[in-house]
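Q: Hi! New to this. If I give you a protein sequence and the SMILES for zinc ion, can you show me the bound structure?
A: Yes, paste them in.
Q: Okay, here:
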Amino acid sequence: MTLLDEVAKLEQEAIERIGSADSLDLINELKIKYLGRKGELTAILKNLKSLSVDERKEVGGKANKVRAALDASLEATIAKFSTGSDDSSIDPTMPGTAQKVGTVHIINQVMGEICDTFYGMGFEIARGPHVETDHYNFESLNFPPDHPARDMQDTFFVEGGRLLRTHTTPVQARELEKRKPPIKIISPGRVFRNEEISTRAHVSFHQVDGFLVDENVTVADMKGALVAFCRAFFGEELKLKFRPSFFPFTEPSVEVDVSCFLCKGKGCQLCKYSGWLEILGCGMIHPNVLKAAGHDPEKYTGYAFGMGVERVAMLKYKVNDIRLFFNNNVRFLRQFS
Ligand SMILES: [Zn+2]
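A: Thanks. Here is the predicted structure of the protein with zinc ion bound:
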């Protein structure tokens, strides 16, 4: 290879490497490597003395051109890295575009608020599986074999005779089996029902269930806890109404209405002009449920309660369609940040 070829080869290699360099450090390294006092171009030119005068002129001239070309290429690349861009219209002193920070989903917020209120009253949080057995979802909770809730209409059955839990009350059955009274548990989570989706109903929604078991627990204890919860959650001025109801796992069973916090009981669209809003179901734990978990119903009594998180959120924030919570429309969800 002649010296002229060597110079041409060096030029080609250097231009390629400068073009693909991705940092200022690398550019500076390349500058020293090719053009430095102990660099490759200088090393080639040291051999000039072995050439004839004409050849020296030719190679020397070529070498000067290569040096100038590489210098220009290096300077251009350094300038590009220094401004961060080829575009000189960008003003780096301008404030940047703020990134929107996400928020906790409104349903998780409401579920957290409900749990916090009971946590403050000494309840512990427990969770259970979404896929349940018939035993924990129904049998241990005193559902008779012909209870309509077991119907295919309401329950999603999965392989192996298991099902998607239709309420969070199975956590009560599981925790009752594991623990010795006194027990104070709150269990938040997702539940599933085989229902037609509408503005009021969905196949998947959330509940918060709670229960307390100890000696000498009475209806008065239940009323006290639920009045404290409703006032902390919806407002101090609230009135409560306890209506008889039916759940297989409680006896007696009660539904709790609160005075409408929008119209203060005068009657409005939210409360359908009744002045009252249905908020939660509760009752004294059925002796059969205590027995199924191995506790003596003669010694221990307890109360249980449960509420739908979406329903509470719809009332509290005046949302008229349950589907809005699951559509993931950011404009809807951002209101609650
Ligand atoms: Zn009202």
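A: The chain has a mean pLDDT of 88. Let me know if you'd like me to explain how to read the tokens.
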